[in-house]
Amino acid sequence: MPYNSYPYELPPLPYPYNALEPYIDEETMLVHHDKLFAGFVTLLNGVLKPYPKLQKLSLEQLLVNPNILPKNSRLDITRYAGGVYNHILFFAKMAPPGENQHNIPTGKLMQNINKTFGSFDKFKALFSQNAAAVFGSGYTFLVKNRHGGLKIINTRNQETPLRLGYSPIIILDVWEHGYFLKYKERRDEYINNFWDIVVFDEN
Ligand code: MN
């Protein structure tokens, strides 16, 4: 994963701010990427400043085992590193709908989805159901375990799947800041539109 070492930098958005219109509006992208995501980058650099040893670790290493973190900064480091990690993934794993149909899985991943969930449509329905059920702020992920098995999980706040031993394949940010400007209370509509812009880049 790029942008994965101290001092952390805000990765540029890999497409124009209005590129995901009408699914995600330009103003939401500007606030979400340039203010909120940027805020997590600043907070993470700040909290790691007194810890030269931790500065040598990657985001994954900071997140996979919280017990290595100093007790009095553990919660903050986990939150801010999680915020950076989750937002790197979220913005990278979306793109404007295009001719290459990146929103449809291919190869082994598609086979695995079919085997695990019955069909791609059934997978989408289950993932959407999970995302609609996030209470408060959090994320829905499609993850892979160490043996390649697939699972849909929700995490709270800025928690990541890493501590649970999973690696993420796709991620949907269901914090209200991700959709409220455009969709207001209609989270279902935001979730439904996500399927047009999501990127499945594993196969
Ligand atoms: Mn967010």
Please characterize this protein's 3D structure:
With 203 residues, this protein is mainly alpha-helical. The protein folds into 2 domains: 26-92, Orthogonal Bundle (Helix Hairpins), CATH 1.10.287.990; 107-196, Iron/manganese superoxide dismutase, C-terminal domain (minor pseudopilin epsh fold). 45% of the residues lie in helices and 10% in strands. The chain contains 8 helices and 3 strands. The protein has helices at residues 26-48, 52-55, 59-64, 74-92, 107-117, 120-133, 180-183, 187-197, and strands at 138-144, 150-156, 167-173. The protein has a 3-stranded antiparallel β-sheet, sandwiched between helices. A hairpin with a 5-residue loop joins strand 1 (138-144) and strand 2. Helix 6 packs antiparallel against helix 8 (187-197). It is globular. The two termini are 17 Å apart. The model has no long low-confidence stretch (mean pLDDT 96). Manganese (II) ion is lined by residues 32, 36, 87, 173, 175, 177-178.
CATH class (first level) name of the largest domain: Alpha Beta
CATH superfamily membership of the largest domain: Iron/manganese superoxide dismutase, C-terminal domain
The percent range for helix content is 40-55%
Structure ligands: manganese (II) ion
